[in-house]
Amino acid sequence: GGGGVPGLLRRLGRVEDSRQRAAELFGWLLAPVAPSEFLGRHWERAPLLVRRGDPGYYAGLFSTADLDGALRRGEVHFGTHLDVTSYAEGVRETHNPSGRALPPVVWDFYQNGCSLRLLCPQAFSRTVWHFLSILQEQFGSMVGANTYLTPPGTQGFAPHYDDIEAFVLQLEGKKHWRVYSPRTDAEVLPQFSSANLTQAELGEPVLETVLEAGDLLYFPRGFIHQGNCLPDAHSLHITVSSYQKNSWGVLLQKLLPAALQMALEEDVEYRRGLPMDYLGYMGVANSDADDARRTAFMEKVQSLIKRLVEYAPVDAAVDQMAKSFLHDCLPPVLTQSEKAQSIYGFPAQWQGGRPHNVDIQITKDTEIRLLSHGIVRLCNEEAGVMLYYTTENSRVYHKEEPKFLELDPEYIDSIEFLLSSYPNHISVGNLPCETLEEKISLATILFEKGILTTKKPLVQV
In the CATH scheme, what is the code of domain 248-312? Predict the structure, then answer.
């Protein structure tokens, strides 16, 4: 279909299930490569180049005119939102003044050969926000973006690798890219980004290409990359990123301390004292000693570590990962019909000297569903059962604290029922609470937080 990215987002808005919406957008991002082929051959393994020969593929996602508009609205600040950078003769520099990034100053930097990196395009572009907010449900991990505008014949950044999976979408012009394999095993899927590297530290590229408008370049974290503009064209691209700190190791960082705490509470073997003379035969100074007591000590440690598995609260640790993800999430972008069926389209207003249409009248027959599947997460915590949600998040990363409702235990089954029923509507009367009063109370709270939509607008305007 036509209409560029806004048209695509409108079509996806008619897909009932947010998980399917996310999967279809992911498919569009990779097309004509099938997601299954991408995940099997490239994800976390190898770069992928998709040449489309279609300059309009990303039309309407983001443009230099959109950047100019944000500058002219006075919304952009140096450092916070915009970096001015250059890379020449092996030297990478940042040239950020302080304060507001106004057009005459920014475009003067550009004319003098500096690159412009917009750090949070989703805060300035509704389309980028909408695009990323759908995609984040596919990854189950924060999806961020930066845009890069580079003048002809220049390079803005030194070669480096990142700690994220990178999808480079070429929006305007073209750019010459070189991508290099990780240099050592330690740099495969690294936990942190690298410092700036010198040309002498690089081997031969595994991929060298000129990316043109409509093309896609993917590379995993740890793959060194550099891009420079050819003399005859500027370049604008957006890098969509995900999977920062989303590894097995990060899960275990949450899980193992919790497992050990439970083991200490429940199993006397973990509370028994160490041997009185263990300092005499253990420790680095004794590491070469051939001593039966060392062997026994090592075996005891190994057996206690193996036993930890029995105490590992895996689901609770996964819920903590999900809680972090929900805090990282962009808030949902509502379609016109979703807005009409939610608190955001509710027609309460001041009119003729008094408020009108104030009462949210939910009855046992009101048909409800979650706004989207990824919008809430139940977490069992020491303080009680918490329902984390994304509807009140900011478009700026972590500008808001995590948002949650503390739930009375009698409501837990109803949340699970809403999640398992999605994307179908259910009537409030069918929520598995004891009393009708509780059912209506829960539905009203969730509706007021923007978490629920109703099948028909509650007030016909």
Answer: 1.10.10.1500
Coil, strand or helix at 157: coil
Instruction: Measure the CA–CA gap between 26 and 131, rounded to whole angstroms.
Output: 10
How many other CB atoms sit within 10 Å of the CB of residue 14? 9
Comparing CA positions, the residue from 169, 177, 193 lying closest to residue 226 is 177
Produce one character per residue of 161-182: b if its CB has 16 or more CB atoms within 10 Å, e if not.
Answer: bbbbbbbbbbbbbbbebbbbbb
Average pLDDT value over all residues in the chain:
96
**Phi, psi (rounded to 5 degrees) for 292:** -60, -30
Domain 3-242 sits in which CATH superfamily?
Cupin (2.60.120.650)
Question: Does pLDDT of 1 surpass 80?
Answer: no
pLDDT above 90 (res 236): yes
Which residues have a Cβ under 8 Å from the Cβ of 213 and sit 6 or more positions away? 55, 56, 57, 58, 170, 171, 172, 173, 174
Least Cα distance to 227 among 152, 156, 316 occurs for 156
End-to-end CA distance of the chain: 33
The answer to whether 161 and 193 have CB atoms below 8 angstroms apart is: yes
| Spatial contact of 336 and 278, defined as CB atoms under 8 Å apart | no
Q: Where in the chain is the domain with CATH 2.60.120.650?
A: 3-242
CATH number belonging to domain 315-454: 3.90.930.40
State the pTM of this model.
0.95
Residues recorded for the chain: 461
In the numeric block, the tokens 């509710």 are attached to 346
Domain with CATH 3.90.930.40 in the chain: 315-454
Taking only the tens place, the pLDDT of each residue in 410-424 is 999 999 999 999 999
CA 47 to chain centre: 20
What would the two tokens of residue 50 be? 């998709």
Q: Are 377 and 319 in contact (CB under 8 A)?
A: yes
